[in-house]
Batch of 2 targets.
Target 1
Amino acid sequence: AQTVTQSQPEMSVQEAETVTLSCTYDTSESDYYLFWYKQPPSRQMILVIRQEAYKQQNATENRFSVNFQKAAKSFSLKISDSQLGDAAMYFCAYRIRGSTLGRLYFGRGTQLTVWP
Amino acid sequence: DGGITQSPKYLFRKEGQNVTLSCEQNLNHDAMYWYRQDPGQGLRLIYYSQIVNDFQKGDIAEGYSVSREKKESFPLTVTSAQKNPTAFYLCASSISGGHYGYTFGSGTRLTVV
């Protein structure tokens, strides 16, 4: 079974500080994609960052970066210089590369609060 | 602009009634998905469709039905057999294979009254 675990139901950070959200996944596959989605209070799901498992280089999108540890099956999200607009629920997701089904497996989410 | 439209945003249903949630996309995506979101449960897959006139059950399909008569449309019917239908429902679409993740609609909040 494909599972994604986010062990931190809630996290908080001071504005301008850095926070790291954890994600681990369980799979027997060697090639896959990993994603972080953000769901603000509007509940619109927004893709934050994407990582291809066969690429060793960690993905970066402006203030968002990942620490991808394939052997440990870990995919954490680091948010630098946190802003009030970063407050949201964050979901980690996983998808097998090459699968015709195309479904994503999601974790249960981490609720991030940003304090001014 | 291309995107996914879910309607209505809020929906109220009496117990014992069927209700249909609409999902339309103009992204020319082949695949479409329905997820249910409950507090602390994350997103759970209800149904998905890779091509027109074909769809598969997800992890929690009982009490739900779908159709895929057009590429652009993937409506979800919540039947009276669904014992706990109050939830937030998200529709998503992707290119074939979903390599770049999903594009999501803005969701429908269904409440049973």
Note: Chain A has no helices and twelve strands.
Target 2
Amino acid sequence: DAGVIQSPRHEVTEMGQEVTLRCKPISGHNSLFWYRQTMMRGLELLIYFNNNVPIDDSGMPEDRFSAKMPNASFSTLKIQPSEPRDSAVYFCASSLLGGEGETQYFGPGTRLLVL
Amino acid sequence: QQPVQSPQAVILREGEDAVINCSSSKALYSVHWYRQKHGEAPVFLMILLKGGEQKGHDKISASFNEKKQQSSLYLTASQLSYSGTYFCGTVPKENAGNMLTFGGGTRLMVKP
């Protein structure tokens, strides 16, 4: 299996621009997670989906952030408008709901820099 | 609620042992251990589900105490490749599901 796929791997944008991050989970997995990682705040869960339905979005920082999962093989995380404090590495992870312990497998991440 | 990891950082010489602890104030459903190398994604190491459980592979093992509030990761005869940041992720028993809360991480550096 190709594992979790994320794109782009790197993104540099200017403050105020819209940023869209993409994720393809492992085939057959039915849970998807978006995380943000910074030196200051560590690894934070932003939102997660089970069977394409958002379950918990309490970690989403504010209304500028939105996430969608239109089907089982694709999800997006959008930031509009972006701000310098959004600079971070954004990881997508997937797991099999009901699998043993529901181990999460992480994608390679998207490094976002907002100038 | 975020689990507490200790120590925050440790430096070892190749061949030395290390223990990393992960503690929660509440009983847990599961503990997951991950290792992240610089510039890479976290990689799953192992999961513990049962109180009193011990498991491992190669020279990396972990335990889960009977009360299911603390887990320890054991690295024996450390190798250079063990360097990285180790995270525990926990799922509370009262809200068992698939949502992990990660600890702050333990930075491990193994020197020749």
Note: Chain A is about 0% helix and 55% strand.
